[in-house]
Amino acid sequence: MASTNSFSGHNYGVQIGSNPGTVINTFSEDPLDKLPIACGAEFSSYADQHEDNCLPGTRTELRETIAEWAVSPHGKCIFWLNGMAGTGKSTIARTVAKSFKENGQLGASFFFKRGEADRGNAKRLISTITRQLVTSHGDLAPLVSKAIKNDPNISQIS
């Protein structure tokens, strides 16, 4: 007597054995896996784990300004932190991101790094941020998956 087995999902590993019946394998591909990301761009990445944060009690006025902007319903959508090279912009951004993460306020982050292929330009900025937002807010997954299914090349559009 033949048997029919079916399963859905990802297939990892090696399969060894015999089955005198019929096996139906159905594999689904998660559309979110198609989003190209910039590895190491997230503030808590392994590659940058030893990068500096602000020392306690330093840059407090600017950090408070950023924190107030983040929770203000009337603030602008983007807080543009600019300044000359070496003035501590990345250190401030890492410190704020760490604080927001600890308080459950951080949705996503992207740290550019000159000279690194994926982090040296904005090509993967949106898809990396999107992937992080889906991870931190799972209710976005079906919406993002639908957008990718509707246009599989959506992450390539400039």
UniProtKB/TrEMBL annotation:
Cited InterPro entries: NPHP3-like_N (IPR056884), P-loop_NTPase (IPR027417)
Nephrocystin 3-like N-terminal domain location: 64-155
Keywords: Repeat
Domain of life, per lineage: Eukaryota
SUPFAM superfamilies: P-loop containing nucleoside triphosphate hydrolases
Name used for this protein in its record: Nephrocystin 3-like N-terminal domain-containing protein
Organism: Aspergillus tanneri
Lineage, broadest ranks: Eukaryota, Fungi, Dikarya, Ascomycota, Pezizomycotina
